[in-house]
Design a protein that fits this description.
By secondary structure, the protein is an alpha+beta fold. The protein has two domains: 16-62; 77-140, SH3 type barrels. It contains two helices and ten strands; from the N terminus they run αββαββββββββ. The protein has helices spanning 2-16, 31-63; strands at residues 18-20, 23-25, 77-78, 90-94, 101-104, 107-110, 114-115, 118-123, 127-132, 135-140. The strands form three sheets. A five-stranded mixed sheet has the order 3-10-9-8-7, with no helix packed on it. A three-stranded antiparallel sheet has the order 4-5-6, with no helix packed on it. A hairpin with a 2-residue loop joins strand 5 (101-104) and strand 6 (107-110). The chain starts with a helix and ends with a strand.
């Protein structure tokens, strides 16, 4: 019985790899054909991922407050820095809704920090609000 089983297995193996003009024809698709079948699926996955990331960042950008020239967030605020305000240079903002940071005079600060006599009371995408001697001032990012 085992001799017959071995012969059947051998015949089945030979049938799955028949030769035709020196080329082996296997039951599996050649490597290139498998790649061609997977390409559209991978491309679709990349497009969907790109769209999801784009929508996420679009919503994050829309949720962030938009500060434009001429906007004054509070009643006692001035957008122009008077001569009495110490020299504060805002060179950048690192935006995060929960904990925005700003770079003022080369130092990374957050809301509540002090730079000299000025207290940081607000950080927006394009400006930083400071309180100096009881007055609030918005300093634009350079």
């Amino acid at each position: 019985m085992s001799t017959i089983l071995k012969a059947l297995q051998k015949a089945e193996g030979a049938r799955s790899q028949e030769t035709l003009a020196g080329r082996v024809i296997a039951d599996e698709a050649p490597e290139g054909q498998r790649c061609r079948k997977a390409f559209p699926i991978v491309l679709l996955a990349l497009v969907v991922t790109g769209l999801a990331v784009g929508v996420y960042f679009y919503r994050e950008r829309k949720a962030a407050p938009d500060v434009r020239e001429g906007d004054i967030p509070s009643g006692s605020m001035s957008l122009s820095a008077p001569s009495e305000l110490p020299n504060l240079s805002v060179s950048g903002v690192i935006w995060d809704e929960r904990k925005p940071l700003a770079v003022i005079n080369g130092k990374i600060v957050q809301v509540g920090d002090n730079v000299g006599e000025s207290e940081i009371i607000g950080i927006e995408l394009e400006s930083v609000t400071v309180r100096y001697r009881g007055n609030d001032y918005a300093i634009r990012v350079k």
